[in-house]
Amino acid sequence: MGYEGVPGLVATREAYGETTLVVDPARIVEACTHLRDGEGFNFCSDVSAVDYLGWGETGVAGYIGTRDGRDLHEPGSQGLARVPEPKPKRFAVNYHLLAVAGEPRRVRVQAWLDDGETIASVVPVWPTADWHEREVWDLMGISFAGHPNLRRILLDDDWEGHPLRKDYPVGGEPVRFSEAE
Amino acid sequence: MTAVLPKRAPVYEGTRVPSPIPTVLRVDPGKHDLEDVLRVNFGPNHPSMHGVLRLIVDLDGERIAGLSAVIGYLHTGFEKTMEQKTWWKSITYPTRVDYVGFQANELVYVLAIEKLLEIEVPRKATWMRQCLSELTRIQSHLVWLGTSALELGAISVFWYAFRERDVILDLFELVTGVRMHTRYFQAGGLAEDIPPGFYAQARAFCERMPKAVDEYEQLLDSQQIWLERTKGVGLLSADDALALGQSGPVLRASGVNWDLRKSIPYLAYDEVDFNVPVYFGGDVYDRYKVHMDEMRESTRIVAQCLERLEGMESEPWIADDRKVVLPPREELHTSMESLIHHFKIVTEGYRVPEGEVYVAIESPRGESACYVCSDGGPKPWRVKLRAPSFVALEATATCMTDAYVADFIAVVGSLDAVMGDTDR
Prior knowledge:
The complex is a heterodimer.
Chain A: E1 9-15, E2 18-23, H1 28-37, E3 43-51, E4 91-99, E5 105-113, E6 118-120, H2 129-140, E7 143-145
Parallel strand pairs in A: 2-5, 6-7
Antiparallel strand pairs in A: 1-2, 3-4, 4-5
Chain B: E1 24-25, H1 29-32, E2 37-42, E3 54-60, E4 63-70, H2 78-83, H3 87-90, H4 92-97, H5 102-117, H6 123-151, H7 155-176, E5 185-186, E6 189-190, H8 198-221, H9 224-230, H10 238-243, H11 249-253, H12 260-263, H13 284-310, H14 336-347, E7 355-363, E8 366-374, E9 382-386, H15 388-392, H16 396-399, H17 407-414, H18 419-423
Antiparallel strand pairs in B: 1-4, 2-3, 3-4, 5-6, 7-8, 8-9
Helix pairs in contact in B: 5-6, 6-7, 6-13, 6-17, 7-8, 8-13
């Protein structure tokens, strides 16, 4: 199970029995082509993104830990959890790949981006990435260079903002005839 | 009585995914100048449409010259909402995403939470989950069969399919108290013990179901109109099905022997005996055949689950982990400790260790998966549901190359997309 040959490989992580390959975003298409042709990952299950804005900070997403807090499930750890390690950049784009045929394997390819950075589209590698990447653009605002049809998919064409970003307000829709107007 | 089988167009070789946009069928530029290319808008609200899907179709006479699908009419921001809820409250949401195969999404989300918690689930819960998942599969396939046949004008199948579906919903009501959106799976096991009377009722269903499937098949397979409208229609080759990320019955009807229950077993699927139906025609008819065979196989799995479950009468149905699982109701009157645990879980919720997991199951529609990211707090940091319906609709353009306008009702039906699952 060696993925050393993947172009642009930055790091390999094993957690919960899953393999994550952190890949240089500039070489994502090369890496994905290699995984498809060289490693047999002929099936792209999913492309999705995570926004880590405010990760590990107090008050974000209900988080109330402190930096030297205690571990979960330790005796008497009712209140506090461990503060998570900081992430290299704001966004992670995850490609969940699957090898159909032979020994079934899964792998997660992860690329880190900051706001405003673009990543190359993998539609030429797996056509199924078309709608997945449009969804990531629509909801997370990550732009895919070379995508043939990068338009909003779930929201209206004239929608403002990208709702799955952590700085997108919940209840951000103005309510008519209310105090908040 | 068997109808005369029409000659079937064989599935094409290689690939015909449209280029450059894999999901949009473009009108041939040479045809564009002709005045008889007519653009017709089907949906989002159209009686023959499979939910609120909109298809923009360019017609050259009766032939489909161009096609693009527009989705998002049912987008409700489930993923964003789940980030605002505690882990145990957010279990109610995935159930409502795929509102036809509801227990599949519930299961995949609970499995993801359990993977992060690294919690041991009692075997009774595992077998009951498997039993209910298979009932859900049958129930979902019945909805598919009824509505797809209805859209092609075979109205009687609809009534029969929904008759059997009602029996399954009665079973769900007996076990969980509600007919749909059951929220019966908890992190750690089940919400309640299996009620008395379930086994007898479920057994009666298992005896009835194979005969019912034979009946539907007889009704449809002796129907000339059904055969002509489904055979050789909506072709999708194995290569294209994989490239377009198709899974479940669509993939298996294109000749790919792939079922997560067999290839990457979860729950206790490696301990039951069942077959994976595979067909090679890649058309609407073979997708229908896969659905029919799967209902028979699922009935077999349910029967095996019942057999195992009956031997686990007095076993626990949920893990004994007071940091995650609500204490038994009766303890709240006598134990201060239990009261505190109950209060903590209900108000603040349990905490899930930091990490990210991707859990996939074979839902009625294919690979239904859940990517969950936790920061160690009581709410999920990010939940992404990999919706098989969303991916299935990406194949519309490829399936409808060279199709007639009447075919696309059959094709969209056969891809088995639930719009709630597509739009989330």
